[in-house]
Amino acid sequence: MKQYNIAYLPGDGIGPEVSAEAHKVLAKVSSDYGFSLKWVEFPYGATHYLKTGELLSQSALTEMADCSAMMLGAVGDPKVKPGVLEQGILLALRFHFDQYINLRPAVSFPNVPLPIALPKGEQINCVVVRENTEDFYMGIGGRGRKNFQVPLHAKRALYDFNATLDVKLDQDIEMAIQLGAISRPGIERVTRFGCELAKKRGEKNVALVSKSNAVPHIYGFLDEVTKEVVAKEYPDLTLSVVNVDALCYHLARKPQGWGVMICPNLFGDIVSDLLAGLAGGLGVAAAGNIGDGLSMFEPIHGSAPDIAGTGKANPIAAILSAAMMLQHVGEDKAAAVIEDAVKAYLADAKLPQMPIEFGGSASCSNVGDMVLARIK
User: What range(s) does the Isopropylmalate dehydrogenase-like domain occupy (predicted)?
Assistant: First the structure.
């Protein structure tokens, strides 16, 4: 029997609750399909940080590197200053393991209420391929008055970036500066990932989300390199370049008309959350942080400490994230069975059997059990 070692961070708030339901489903399909999952648990999150002051240890990163994938419940607590956990755990994991793709599918499921009405027989079925290590999320910049220097440093798998910005102002005013940067290899690899995904989905078109008319240096370069890769390596695909503001307008009117969307880091974060809302909410929004080494899978809804322990959490996003993880390690059949079970549960459920998020009365564990019962 093949065994996969899975690094597991249950995290904070509802993280352990929704993860427990995903674990139940994973235990069933792994038994049915002849493989096993060994969970390698780590304590990192708000609770551990508040108790010890530790975010991540080097020894833990070394141990994680030997795992097949990572599953994250959720990280966050209002007792911790915003940005500490995001930068010290989530971004640290993404950058350390060079998880250069943030993959966020958006699918409208049966009986899940949507904010807009879709034509009969149509559904939302698209995916954001978000570049995950560059752009304006590199965290480099600073602030000062009149004449000041801003040290700029970012270490990535592709390069080690070092510079100093000398700022001279003719007025004694305070100014803040944030630097965004993208590289040719960074653009090329996310373009190839998006194109391969479009081929796998049987699609002929890929959309590049950009804004080169207003930000020509970064996004003009993005447009140029993406067009080169598609023309040279994927002649059977058509590339559509769409400004992010126009895309948001079109998504709000006709979200079912889109497939694979390649986005730079900043725009990908915004567009994927918009799509999550259009497709039914964060309770059905799964995500993967994918690289050539350890990849991490998580629901994008956060830790929701206000409902932790009440049973109100919706575990579907965690269950779908688990299916994404299985697909990543090569267990495609088991992953498809989980996705089918989620769809079957939602299609069959009467209102009281729906998650509380969708107006029903089913608890977190009830929802997990009902999905589990439909695994075939």
Answer: 5-371
